[in-house]
Amino acid sequence: MTVLQEYERIHEELRREGYINTQYPLNPSETLWNKKIMTMKREELEKVKSFRLKRIVKWAWDNVPFYRNFWKSKGFEPDQIRDWKDIVKIPILRKDELRKDLSANPPFGSIMVPELAKRIRFVSATSGSTGLPTFQGWGALELDYFEEAQARYLWTFAGVKPTTVYANYLNMSGFYSWGPPVVETAMWRCGATAIAGGGETYFSWKARHNLIFRLWKVDVLATTPWLHRLIGEEAKAEGWESPFKVLLLHGGAAAENTKKKLFQVHPNAKLAISVWGTTDGHMAVEVPGLDGQLVIWEDMEIFDIVDPKTDEPASPGERGELIATLLNHFTMPLIRYSLGDYVKNEFTTDPDPTYGITHARFVEPIPGRVEWMFKVKGKLLLPIYVEDAVNEIPDTTGMFNVIIYGNEMDKLKIRVETRRNMVDSTYDSRAREILAERIGLNKDDVEIEWVEPGKTAWTGYKLQVFLDQRKK
Fold this sequence. Notes:
By secondary structure, the protein is an alpha/beta fold. The chain has 13 helices and 24 strands.
């Protein structure tokens, strides 16, 4: 059997066994998109994870020169994997290794299966904000499973069904996997009407986008928490109510106070759901009714968490670096790949009370990337903690930039948008008190640069919460 034939055989197997739902759209009375898989018994799910981990590791060893060479150099061989818990034996792959390979073997490096490289259907790319972009090639199988994973939460949690109008205000350009593939396929599976708005054009076509929201009476809006807030503030200022019933929060963890503000500026919204994901196709989605608990589709991937200094598994309850393995990406496998996010090593597998979903959940939100951590007076902070505090300051838009000027800082320097024409010493002092109290500093440890609305730094449709001014 050729590599292509085996790839197509596995794809058909996944569809036949129901891991990829092929009967769509469902009857709108159905609550779960794929009940069989989403409520699978834990023991069966554990067997699936073990089988798929062994399969993808053997596949990579047999068909991907990059992995065979990389693993041999680290003393690892596939027969060391007996079940999914042995995943910690696999060497960690970080982005700098991919960049070296990509530079030596453009455009994808030697990590892509040669026989499948000519049959990719979509190319995604990271932003390249920390260096050379890395590319991900998606074949028919990978796209099919990714669309299935999207449909599970869109249908089940967000109520995206026939007659629903969904607007995608994520990135529609730049090789972004959560853009067109979601709008053009996962939406159609759900039977919904999809509007591919594109958050990166909102600032230049604001009046046009606001008109679309009103005319089409959009039910579900997907974009970053900050653009959600901005759109709601624009609506209030222009004297109309946003029609959105469900807010899907992408691109960064939403602080508790951010959600409260979103409901204030979007009076018709009944639900706000945090959706974490990467361009590569990883995802975890907040379960309605379980604030901050993000479910992982365990038939799709395995997460583990390590101490970034030692690469050893983090202790239960400790925070560390998030490592992920996609179990069904055969065209370009990503096995034990560092995502760079900073999370708590604690999961729960109790079925959630609303849907009975048995897949594991993070016990708290994913607060940000490892490189986003910073210290003020020796205290470790992340932008999400600052965001929660900024939203408590009166007369702000919630937009801010944390200014990082050193590895060990003696002050929190932050740019904050205020609606006040004049900022007096009393207002500034109270704002510094609120920030200091919320994040465990003294008022004199906080320095605020006040700017008018619209003057904070953004990158496309994302607020640039972290401005790094350190010398590289």
